UniProtKB/TrEMBL annotation:
Residues 158-293 form the Tim44-like domain. It is found in: Mitochondrion. This is Large ribosomal subunit protein mL45. InterPro entries: mtLSU_mL45 (IPR051975), NTF2-like_dom_sf (IPR032710), Tim44-like_dom (IPR007379). PANTHER family: 39S RIBOSOMAL PROTEIN L45, MITOCHONDRIAL (PTHR28554), LARGE RIBOSOMAL SUBUNIT PROTEIN ML45 (PTHR28554:SF1). The keyword Ribonucleoprotein applies. Transmembrane segments: none annotated.
Length: 317
């Protein structure tokens, strides 16, 4: 099967066409930098069962007999296909990502509030167990230290740096930086928005400062999960970091003059999603990339996606 067909299959398994799917929010879409994208991303909630199945990878990989090619070539092709799927999977929010909203976003009923917190506690517990299991598998032996070190303390500085760099690159139209620090699909959306700007129009962006420092920034989700059950399948590491900031934006016309009324300061709370791949052979990690921002989870969405999770779990048994 061709790489394009393999990517399509991976997308089908990870995205799960859901009527209740949420969307990755294009960063600064509400500030005029970016034309609103119609590219959907799901947050279907699955963990171990929400990965690409062994049968899917076997179906996607080319069938080569021992007479046609040596085993080393077969293994090399299989690894290449899995890595390609891993690259595509970076552009998708991991199924099971739960972004707890502020108290103002909780359900009104006390019973619903408690039920919502119960779902969050369950997901958070699964997240901790899954991450610990991945770390345990990196131990050469039971009595040695794990080779994989998550370094959770680096998540917030990384997300803040990527968030700021991307905003400055988007404002200035720096396509190279966007392609370097963003996932493939997200970079494509941002570059397309730059190409669609009126001729001669320029933008400026400045981070005035971080706000609500008592509560932000904070790690809303940190997930480490393999994309399949294959022995050396790449592992996706994804973090959602909530950032509260005051930002200043301005537009310039073709003569370099400030467009009247365009200079604004806004306060925004953004759930920034950063992702990377981990090599299970060497336990080395790729560079972090920006996936976008995501809306907080709601009780209604979670209930609807729980049905999808159950279906996906049954299909992957």
């Amino acid at each position: 099967m061709s790489p394009s067909r393999l990517r399509l299959r991976a997308g089908e398994l990870l995205l799960a066409n859901a009527t209740a799917s949420r969307r990755i929010i294009p960063i600064f879409a509400n500030q005029g930098f970016l034309v609103q994208s119609a590219c959907p991303f799901t947050t279907s909630r699955s963990r171990q069962k929400g990965v690409i199945s062994k049968q899917a990878l076997e179906h996607a990989s080319p069938r080569i007999s021992s007479q046609q090619a040596p085993k080393s070539e077969m293994a090399q092709r299989m690894r290449g296909n899995i890595n390609e799927v891993g690259s595509e999977a970076l552009s998708v929010l991991i199924p099971g990502t739960f972004v707890l909203p502020p108290l103002s976003g909780f359900p009104k009923s006390l019973i619903q509030k408690l039920r919502f917190l119960g779902y969050w506690c369950l997901v958070k517990g699964q997240e901790i167990i899954t991450n610990a299991a991945v770390k345990f598998t990196s131990k050469p032996s039971i009595f040695t230290r794990a080779a994989f070190k998550a370094k959770r303390s680096a998540l917030i500085p990384t997300a803040k740096a990527l968030h700021r760099t991307m905003a400055e690159a988007l404002a200035s139209g720096d396509r190279d930086t966007i392609n370097r620090i963003c996932t493939r699909k997200f970079a494509g959306t941002l570059v397309a928005s730059i190409d669609g700007r009126p001729r001669g129009r320029r933008y400026g962006w400045e981070l005035v400062g971080y706000t609500n420092k008592l509560f932000y920034p904070s790690v809303k989700s940190h997930r480490i999960t393999p994309i399949s059950r294959e022995k050396y399948a790449p592992i996706i590491r994804q973090a959602v970091v909530a950032i509260s900031s005051r930002q200043r934006r301005v537009e310039y016309d073709a003569r370099g003059q400030v467009v009247p009324g365009s200079e604004k300061e806004i306060e925004a709370v953004e759930n920034v999603v950063v992702v990377c791949l981990v090599d299970p052979k060497t336990w080395t990690q790729s560079e972090w990339r920006l996936l976008g921002t995501v809306k907080p989870t709601t009780l209604e969405e979670w209930k609807q996606e729980a049905v999808l999770l159950k279906t996906m779990m049954l299909q992957n048994r």
